[in-house]
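Record format v2
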Amino acid sequence: MQELPIKITTDCNLYLKNPETSELGQRIVTNSIELINELGFEAFTFKKLGKKIKSNESSIYRYFESKHHLLVYLITWYWSWLEYRLVFATSNILDPEERLRIAVEIITKKVEQDFAFGYINEVLLFNIVIDEGSKAYYTKDVDEENEKGFFKPYKRLIKRLSDMVLGVNPNYIYPEMLMSTVIEGARKQRFFTEHLPGLTTTIKEDKDTIVSFFIQLVFHNLKNNV
Amino acid sequence: MQELPIKITTDCNLYLKNPETSELGQRIVTNSIELINELGFEAFTFKKLGKKIKSNESSIYRYFESKHHLLVYLITWYWSWLEYRLVFATSNILDPEERLRIAVEIITKKVEQDFAFGYINEVLLFNIVIDEGSKAYYTKDVDEENEKGFFKPYKRLIKRLSDMVLGVNPNYIYPEMLMSTVIEGARKQRFFTEHLPGLTTTIKEDKDTIVSFFIQLVFHNLKNNV
DNA sequence: TAAAATTAATAGTATTACTTTTATATTTGC
DNA sequence: GCAAATATAAAAGTAATACTATTAATTTTA
């Protein structure tokens, strides 16, 4: 079994039993990604997942308290993976502008290649992030779940990006707001491109309009704030 | 009965019977806004609403096919109301920059005052837009619902805003993307401010950080695109 | 005032998320 | 190597959900 460099720690309170630690746990994660992709989160149930992995509904409940917990786990895994890639891609870049440019590119671009990180298919997971991502926090229980630590990894990612913003312009006063607007905005524009094109812009000559737009947005904004 | 200047037309296919046209219909709308605020959309049911308006679950189904249809109706009413206010506030402004500034302010600022438009409480409706707004389109049926015309009023609003952007800078190439990023981004930042402050920035001295941020974002971006 | 339309009430369906219980494997400590 | 702890599977059950169908009562209107 391959070790994954991305760990969702216990202090996030996202699982009852760490799915990394058993074959069944891994099968739950792998197959839930496939099944949520196929059915959408609302139609996805632990019963159907149990059938798919030739196990039982009640066994899945040993790992995740609810299907909502499982969704948050998957989305969190994605943010942690993004942060990992971000650190990796920018570690040798000394120029702050170049660092930020690379960072914005990574957080806004499509995931098209399966990085084959263990039992997780990143391309399918990316689709879930686009289509179902905001369901992780649009709940009546956000505040409670936030206190439990559910969103720590996401906050850490935003913090890291904000620091890069300040590296380019230490006087900029909205670093967190800018970066969460970019990361969430890019997700939304992807969704619009796919389903509601009237709400977005696509430039045919551009390989990725969403990436270009957000890079321009960030840098034009920072340059005017001296 | 006061006439509402905001009409959700039949070609949006959002209702079975227009709730404006009867007292029961209006009670359904008024009270659903209160009840969704109170319980959140997931815990809200037609059964509970029926009890609240001292009518019956099945009667509500005569107006709205499902609770999802009702939610989309409410959100759509909000977009139409925003557009109405937008047109009203900018109709006499000739300077394109000033027009756009006013527009961005209107679409990003909080609704704190009940405009007392008939039977709709705009402050409560605004809360629903913040907390549940994106549930209107994050569904497996988006494409189908889009074809039915569910999102026409929202698209019209984005179109109108894009035209104002082009009024300021005719060479700007991402008008729709910029405006939907602003409108959706402002909603999300409001939610973060309330529930996940680690993902956003708040400046105490500023009366409304979200408005200031987005105005700056738009204008710095447009000025660098000649 | 009769017909049409609207509303109310009841009861029903299939499915959902999740729990409980019990039995059977599998792993682990000694 | 075997008992004890743990993990898994299976079945059955619960309360609630979203929605439908039917029927009856009430209101509107022609």
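The first helix of chain A runs from residue 23 to 39.
Chain A touches chain B through 51 residues (CB under 8 Å).
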